Amino acid sequence: MPQKLALAIRHVEFEDCGTLAEVLRGRGFQVRYADVARVDLRAVDPLAPDLLIGLGAPVGVYDVELYPWIAQELDLLERRLAAEKPTLGFCLGAQMLARALGARVYPGPVKELGWKPLQLTPAGERSVVAPLAARHTSMLHWHGDTFDLPSGATLLASTAEVPHQIYEWGGRVLAFQCHPEIRVADIESWLIGHACEIGSTAGVDVGGLRADTARLGPALAERARSTFESWLSAVGL
After folding, report:
1. Is it the case that residue 1 has pLDDT exceeding 90?
2. What pLDDT, in 10s, does the model give residues 106-115?
């Protein structure tokens, strides 16, 4: 039986699939990365992978004049969505999917950087993201942008400051503004790679982020694995 393929569009080296990669490999997937700094996305077949994943980055969807690969990635996602094939998005990946679905992406009212619980909607409580509810775990947030909810999407989770945190679309797309995929072992790379952003964000410091991740990360990893497993089963993967 051919090995299933998960292709992740990666924007910065240290923001990878995290706990999702562990789940995927356990289900017989080969996990590959398409690094936008090295790969021409126009040459990537958006329909070939069994699962396509868009990962995070400290850039905005609207920065297309600065980063031409954004237009290529949006085109790839639009073709993937038209084919109704399973697709996941995290942070920038969720924003890219929202834009590919016709929604507006723009700077949010606040920068969310740090740990804070999610507020699940009634639909979220009935969905595969139920393990991520505040009574079970906190969540890592690391973003300054937000988006309008795409037409036809179902909102699954919010925070008080940024309402659109998790949404699903068409039964085959699940998008997270937040970072359920984070592994405790990876946080040091994030602290180094995002040092300038941390230093310029009021009330946020490296030591606090490190300590919070050590304290809250293990429970999130366990709950995130449960969510990923349930979603993959739901979409037939």
Report:
1. no
2. 999 999 999 9
Q: How many folded domains does the chain comprise?
A: 1
| Rounded Cα–Cα distance for residues 15 and 142 (Å) | 11
Domain that holds residue 129: 4-234
- Tell me: the pLDDT tens digits for 25-46? 999 999 999 999 999 999 999 9
Q: What is the distance of C-alpha 36 from the center of its chain?
A: 16
- Determine the Cα–Cα distance for residues 157 and 166; give it in Å rounded to an integer: 5
Cα distances (Å, whole numbers) of residue 127 to 61, 108, 124, 140, 231: 28, 26, 5, 20, 9
Angle at 101 between CA 92 and CA 225, to 5 degrees: 50
Which residue reads 């990962």 in tokens?
55
3-state secondary structure the chain: CCCEEEEEEECCCCCCCCHHHHHHHHCCEEEEEEECCCCCHHHCCCCCCCEEEECCCCCCCCCCCCCCHHHHHHHHHHHHHHCCCCEEEECHHHHHHHHHCCCCEEEEEEEEEEEECEEECHHHHCCCCHHHECCCCCEEEEEEEEECCCCCEEEEEECCCCCCCEEEECCCEEEECCCCCCCHHHHHHHHHHCHHHHHCCCCCCHHHHHHHHHHHHHHHHHHHHHHHHHHHHHCCC
Q: What is the CATH number of the domain that holds 159?
A: 3.40.50.880
What are phi and psi for residue 125, nearest 5 degrees? -65, -25
CB contact at 8 A, 198 and 206:
yes
